[in-house]
Amino acid sequence: MKYKLLKKTRLTLALLLASSLFTATACAASSQAFNESEYTPTQGRVINSANEFAVLPHRDRIAPENAMLSERLDTLLPELMESANIDMWLVINREYAEDPVYFSLVPQPTFAARRTTMLVFNKLADGSVERLSVNTYPLGGPYESAWSGGDLDEQWAALAELIVAKNPERIGINVSKHWPEADGLTQGMHDRLTEVLPSTLQNRLVPAEDLVVRWLETRSEAELDAFAHAVALARGVIAEAFSSAVVTPGATTTDDVAWYIRQRFEDLSLPIWFMPYVTFQREGMECAPETPFCSSGTGVIQRGDVVHTDVGICYLKMCTDTQEMAYVLKRDEDDVPQDLKDALLTGNRWQDILTDNFVTGRTGNEILAATRAESERQGIVSSTYTHPIGFFGHAPGPTIGMWDNQGDTAVNGDWPLYPNTAYAIEGNIKQAVPEWGGQTIQIMLEQSAYFDGERVIYLAGRKTQWHLIR
């Protein structure tokens, strides 16, 4: 596919910012207090079980993962190297100290960098990029072996000879003060590289952080298909866990549910990237304005509880991050109390305010500021801490708030929003519940979504209805 890449020129960003500010001003003039009765959320989707979706055996995952890699290397990487003004990109790492970007670049099945592994991406005159390996053990396609065999000294000498022969003007290496994903070249590897290079080429080494971030944050059409499926699987397991098939009110604990989720993913051969956790809110539990997370109850789940979970899995290299909530019906209830339905609607409205502010070229800090301002105008008490997602659960790209910092985030928050990127739309709202004597409840939401350059599309729908535990 052809990737639509934003050219990072001052003029383009200035025009985009001007348009964004005009839109924000217009929205401010027309905004009013939010009324749940006049609002119907879009993109809602009910998923009942992970059994609704196929899961490929590990052997069958190799072909699609490698096809997606080849497509990215063929079509995306040349454009990104051109945009980042990088003529050669070096990814050098060794076993037990793999560069974070390494596994997004190598074919499957790859479990480690064998001894010292060197990948060389060299931009050619026609704009294409040749992909070379300088390794004791050749990787094979999609890489051409420029050297193999021999000892470590010979390997470093071969890399230096290759770089001298190609004579690139700007050589990107993975060193970064602010982006951990772009800081994979260890001090030892850096020292060895400078030792073997002539001084004239040492001066051409530049940080490749812009290239690394853009490579990791950009999604292809094929990846989006796989991503949507992964998110649906995660939501399906949550639906199973938040049901009477798993929860017996008065007996089942929050840990029981968390371990059910973990074991279910294990049974599906879906690796998790953090331990699932489950908590509850309950009538009578304080939810003060200054409390960042009110869903802190653990132990036996009771009728009338509001239960919350946060889970993350990876499938076909795409990692998810999902938070959803359930209500445990009291014995005389057959539906969620209206006050709780209204609170979830407010949460969905907050999501809309956030995603309506996704404009190409806006920074994460600008999106956060606009979201906070509009939420306040509509009387919504919210906290926004949305992050990019993809090869990593917490991926590089624009940071849109932090749970412990609702102001600007330096560097990461200044990164602009690009098309073809994905995000965990994460945050919470607080709202009084009259049926709980005016007690405040916190609705915590996190749903994976994709920005196509014009709109935000939830990859497997979003939660607009409560899970019910009977």
From TrEMBL:
- State the Gene3D superfamilies in the record: Creatinase/methionine aminopeptidase superfamily
Q: Extract one GO molecular function annotation from the record.
A: aminopeptidase activity
**Residues in Peptidase M24 domain copies:** 229-441
Q: Which domain of life is it from?
A: Bacteria
Note the SUPFAM superfamilies from the entry. Creatinase/aminopeptidase
UniProt keywords (A-Z) are: Aminopeptidase, Hydrolase, Protease, Signal
Question: Which residue positions does the secretion signal occupy?
Answer: 1-28
Q: What is this protein called?
A: Xaa-Pro aminopeptidase
Organism, as annotated: Aliidiomarina shirensis
